[in-house]
Amino acid sequence: MSENNYVLFDREGQIAILTFNRPKALNALNRELLQELDQILDQIAQNDEIRCVIVTGAGEKSFVAGADIKEMQAYSVMEARALALFGQSVCTKLERLPKPTIAAVNGFALGGGCELAMACDIRIAAAHAKFGQPEVKLGITAGYGGTQRLPRLVGSGIAKEILFTGDMISAERALSIGLVNHVVEKEELLNFSRSMAERICKQSKCAVGLSKQAVNEGTQMDLDRGLKYEAEMFALSFSVDEHAEGFQAFIEKRSPKF
Ligand code: CO8
């Protein structure tokens, strides 16, 4: 456990578990929490022993209930822009982390909380989790990527409904629109997420990393350029020894040791 207050950083073998830890404020994102997260992501990026990251919220009620409204209340236009850019840069750092990330959404994922979850590679929701971009109710727009990542995940029509109404949606509805990958009982959330992380950790680190890069970069390109990019990543995977072990294990009818 690190000495951080607002983001707890635990290690379970090759898996890092980050826990947003302001339960009395439903884990709302204040500036210090974002700064801690930013620094921890740098540490994780440089740590070769960590192969997968799970992010979750402290307590049973909330993943993250958004940016800290009390902190934002007195912001000037300049401060709002600066904090939006900083929060976006942290979300982008999470999205581009060279290791797979799983959001274990244990309750409210609203505003900045939904945006953080969307910056993860995979989202698993507890059955009671609720998602939404309620910023319009405060008279502001989403600022940590919601207007950009939500339509890319669920399509612009559904994204606009969520952004324009500010309505919360259930975990089941989030599943049906592709915002989350799985919905599980709250008691099973961490074990389910851990088990997926363990399955990922058993695969070739190089192939998983290149697959993440191919999806992230490719989805910003048209199909022709994306396919060329994929061919480059495919070729690159042949330059790393792990592929030799993967092929040999198949031929010897055993599990590969990556
Ligand atoms: N910020 C600050 N405090 C919060 C937040 C928040 N986002 N959410 C909850 N809290 C606090 C409450 O104020 C309350 O504190 P206290 O006990 O001191 O009064 C405590 O957490 C518990 O909350 P509630 O009593 O309200 O709990 P309920 O179960 O009744 O309701 C809800 C739970 C529905 C989640 C409710 O708390 C709520 O609506 N929260 C706000 C959700 C929201 O609007 N989120 C979006 C925020 S805006 C945003 O995320 C923009 C991101 C981009 C910012 C760009 C930077 C400039």
UniProtKB/TrEMBL annotation:
Keywords assigned: Lyase
Cited InterPro entries: ClpP/crotonase-like_dom_sf, Enoyl-CoA_hyd/isom_CS, Enoyl-CoA_hydra/iso, Enoyl-CoA_hydra_C
Keyword Ribosomal protein part of the UniProt annotation: no
Keyword ATP-binding: no
Family designation: Belongs to the enoyl-CoA hydratase/isomerase family.
Protein name, per record: Enoyl-CoA hydratase-related protein
Organism, as annotated: Fodinisporobacter ferrooxydans
